[in-house]
Amino acid sequence: MSTDNPAPTAPPTPTDLYRHGLRLLLDKDIDGWVALCDDHAVFEFPFAPDGFPERLDGRPAIAAYMRDYPAHVDLQDIPHLEIHRTDAPDTIVVEMRATGRIVATGAPYEMAYIAVVTVKNGRITHYRDYWNPLAVPASMAEAKSSWEKSSWATSS
């Protein structure tokens, strides 16, 4: 028996979706990364410093926040990545370290992150990012003035 219709594929697991998202960020494909988010996704940044949003509601707000990311941070590698499953099958906890350079200064960029990510129907619905603003390198402070003029500081 032959069929022309392929079997439906299951949506990606939260782990697979997250790993795919990291590849998109490393490739500077912000539109592709934003497309992984649900229309009504919520992003939270509990430790956001002054001038940065603590919460983003919906894909348009997330897109506006992320669109200038490659102009500020040249993300080059994720040398450490651990993804932990939780009792909730749609939620993962991510520990990672990202490295690259600050575009405005050429200075090195290194940041550790812990994120709690929920995925439903193949899209990110909730992303709580516990990045540490106290660990921001001094070189990022030099770039902050350009950020304040960008979508990063105005997307709240």
UniProtKB/TrEMBL annotation:
Pfam families assigned: SnoaL_2
Entries under InterPro entries matching the protein: NTF2-like_dom_sf, SnoaL-like
Domain SnoaL-like: from-to ranges: 24-127
Domain of life of the native organism: Bacteria
Signal peptide residue numbers: none
Identification of the protein by name: Nuclear transport factor 2 family protein
Native source species: Streptomyces inhibens
Lineage summary: Bacteria, Bacillati, Actinomycetota, Actinomycetes, Kitasatosporales
